[in-house]
Specification:
The complex is a heterodimer of chains A (130) and B (365). Chain A is an alpha+beta fold. Chain A has 4 helices and 10 strands. In chain B, β16 and β17 form a beta hairpin. The chains are: A alpha+beta (130), B alpha+beta (365).
Chain lengths: 130, 365
Amino acid sequence: MANFHVPEENYYTKEHEWAQVDENNVTVGITEYAQDSLGEIVYVELPEVGQKVTQGEPFGVVESVKAVSDLVAPVSGTVVEVNESIIDDPGLLNDDPMNNGWLICIEMDTEKELANLMRAPDYKKLIEKK
Amino acid sequence: MSNIKKTPLNQIHKDLGGRMVDFAGWQMPVQYEGLRQEHNAVRKNVGLFDVSHMGEIRAKGPNALKTVEWLTTNLVSQLESGQAQYTLLPNDKGGVVDDLIVYCIEKDADYLLCVNASNKNKDLEWVIENNQGADIIDESDYWGQIALQGPRATNVMKVVMPDVPENLPSFEFATVKFEGETCYVARTGYTGEDGFEVFVPATKTVALWKSFMEKGAAENIAPCGLGARDTLRTEMRFPLYGNEIDDTTNPYQAGLGWVTKTKNKDFLGKSVIMEGKKALTQKLVGIVMADRGIARAGYPLYSKEGAEIGRVTSGTPSPSTGDNIGIAYINKDYSDLGAEVFVGIRGRQLRAKVVKTPFVQRGGK
């Protein structure tokens, strides 16, 4: 199977999202494994800036030709930035999911919720089982 | 599911990097390299599909014609040996057990019914229950099936199976040998492009597939999965059982009056279908999204005033046109070409328009 890049510094969800924490801002995207499983992504729906999101709850969707998949918030908080460029060019999620294909940035309510997420070694184990 | 069925080509799909999924109890490739490339290969060059999961039910003997004529809606008596027709297996409640192709192997005496994988057991039970004296044989395990589809399909066919007439008309089939075994090669398909569907014994399916792939390389042949099969048929507005048609669908509602011959024959369920036709309020139409969003099966349709007026049965981005297209049942009042309708997508109502179908012509134009 393909060798997916799983940066050490990020947190991960079982729904195959990454969360990069900088102070109390959390940037969220989908993992390389996720983009590979989804295939060509043709549509992305994201929340507005200012919207509240809840850990474990959907905040948007990505659609491939065949399927609709929920995007799930890794932490609770307020959306402070949205990557508008992927709305016009969803292919960025396939080409560069870990950088230019980021989805949203959340100002998190509490750092405590990070304990519910996976770190890189556990996430690697999860996708190796697939 | 532990008892998932595998076609003779299962290992080949895995070797080709096919992403395998469960479909109607079968492990099938949904895509190999990518759905879009596979879709375009069929519109521009030629694609190869494993359709061995399809069911084959044979009706033979002196009462074969009588039985198939009674059980299906199209005029079987019109078929000569070597001809095929698209048709329906109606139930006795005004709906449809399955849609299928009937192949006339030998006029009056021998017919092959090619049915959907998901419905095969139901169909077989139905046919046996309503048999009019034919010998009914389930040949689904005996046959593999490969579809060769695209504008360059004939170039590949003539080197792999040179006995197939190049000018074989649409919905006719040739009986030819491949490695000593009898195959039926039909000028049919589910993509809207020129091409063939080949019934080949399971024992020779791998050899035939390899031969198509090898000899087709010069024509840029691509193995294609179920994903491309679905986008290709949706662009043509071909119905898919379970989406556009089911046990409750009146054939006329689905736009299948052209295979429902009520004047010149009698068939099981005819009177209920005729009765149901009078009360139809909905029609099957094509829609194209005007707002950004993808219509998917099951999404509701609304009028401008917000009244629910229908439901999407199939929807996808069209790889050929770039539009987000859909097939939908809609109240007749809103079914005119150009009518503005709204698709309910995750709580929002997004604009779409009723358009003429098929969504594309041959070659994806």
